[in-house]
Amino acid sequence: MSWMIETVREAAVGVADVYRLYADPSTWHAWGHNATWARADGPLVEAGIVEVRANYGKVYPCRIRRLVVDRALELEARPPLVLVIQTYEVEPTSDGVRVRHALELSGRLSGALRIGGAPWFYQRLLDKEVAKVIELAGAHSGSPGQFR
């Protein structure tokens, strides 16, 4: 059984200011809901690996499933019995950007996590994550990075 949650917000910041956060793993700890650090051996490329240390100490190799420069980054992690897909997208709007972060879980343990309340728990983390990305992008661009 698979399930997915997402948070979508619009804000008055620039696409490049959001995307630079996605493209630089050294920033992931500042906005990611579960990253204490992240590192890649070089520039991000599709099928490349980024090592991400979760806030409980485990380091996961996250494979880049999709990378669209200035638009999207999709990562795959494989904790035991679960496949986790994390999607980070930014698209321009007439007044700034639309930021979308999604988390999709599948695999043998995903049903139990769903019943156990993980969607509720992670939804709040995604909401905070998107807000932090917008705040950081706004700080970089000099705009307030406010939601609309």
Please, could you describe this protein's structure?
- With 148 residues, the protein is of the alpha+beta class.
- The protein has a single domain, classed as 2-Layer Sandwich (Alpha-D-Glucose-1,6-Bisphosphate, Chain A, domain 4).
- The chain contains 4 helices and 7 strands, in the order βααββββββαα.
- Strands 1-7-6-5-4-3-2 form a 7-stranded antiparallel beta sheet.
- β5 and β6 form a beta hairpin.
- The longest helix has 24 residues.
- It is globular and about 40 Å long.
- The protein starts with a strand and ends in a 7-residue tail after the last helix.
N to C succession of SSEs: EHHEEEEEEHH
Per CATH, the class reads Alpha Beta
Supply the helix-strand structural class.
alpha+beta
Termini separation (Å)?
34 Å
Q: Helix count?
A: 4
Q: How are the strands ordered across the major sheet?
A: 1-7-6-5-4-3-2
The domain tally reads 1
Average pLDDT figure: 93
Task: Give the CATH H-level superfamily.
Answer: START domain
Gross geometry: globular
Low-confidence stretches: none
The biggest beta sheet is recorded as: 7 strands, antiparallel
The CATH topology is given as: Alpha-D-Glucose-1,6-Bisphosphate, Chain A, domain 4
The percent range for strand residues is 35-45%
